[in-house]
Amino acid sequence: MDAKVISIIAAAVAVSIGSIGPALGEGRSVAAAMDAIARQPEAAGTISRTLFVGLAMIETMAIYCLVIALILLFANPFA
Amino acid sequence: MTQGSPLATTIVFHVGPLLVTRAVVTTWGIMTVLAAGSWLSTRYLRPEPSRRQAILELVVTGIEGQIEEVVCRDARPLLPLLGTLFIFLLTANICGVVPGIQAPTGKIETPAALALIVFLSVHWFGVRARGLLGYLGSFAQPKLIMLPLNVLSEITRTFSLMVRLFGNIMSGEFLIALVLALAGVLVPIPLMALEILVGVVQAYIFFVLATVFIGAAVGGESNEPDGAVASPATPVE
Lengths: 79, 237
Hints:
The complex is a heterodimer of chains A (about 80) and B (about 240).
Chain A: H1 3-18, H2 20-39, H3 44-74
Helix pairs in contact in A: 1-3, 2-3
Chain B: E1 11-15, E2 18-21, H1 22-41, H2 51-71, H3 79-94, H4 109-130, H5 132-137, H6 147-182, H7 189-218, H8 230-233
Antiparallel strand pairs in B: 1-2
Helix pairs in contact in B: 2-7, 3-7, 4-6, 4-7, 6-7
């Protein structure tokens, strides 16, 4: 197989596998935040601000995978 | 494969040896609009506010309150930098919705420059608040063995600040372009609405993270090993 074809497959694998973990993590954190807001509605402001920052941190992992995929597709050092 | 690449930049014109890209032109346009707007809207400030001044005060005190909640101290010294950062990012992220304008944050150089500003101002505020030796000593806390980790986290969190903004905005634009090419003219409108939401959230996240980093450098606590994940989670109220 040609290096270009391999890197296209690798980009798809990087995004698809790399987004599983962040998806599970974001789901868990949103569920926990919902639980916390339901228990303590007066703390909703603090909880949702913290949630957004935490989600951004988790999302970074998926975005790293996206960047790897983009580098493989558009700025490939080997093809 | 390289044409239409989201990593490529379009060059508008040259100034001597300098290449001026489209993102730079858009950035300067936004800067002009914001600066002129700020100048015009702050010319007639009175003790009893008009409607326009009330909106302005709402924005400024809102941002100040957000900073104060995160750093738990007087927000006044941080307000000019962080407020400007937030308003600029908000405008820059959303202006991609206007036809013919590309969001400058969707190109790698604008987020890189902004992350560099945050990186340098973290050290500036840290040194100003604690003195040079006190600030450098904070890297060796809680133990000297944490020094390489703390230094590494300074670099990785700046890098992730850059990549997060770039990746979100660029992938949104890329997605809209793909759907437009595949489906047709009016189909990507819901995606553009989603993109406005993403732009606002990303501007807010960049602003809050910059505040957290500066707050950690100014305050007495040591930096977290991986990008201060824990410190925004526990703002003491």
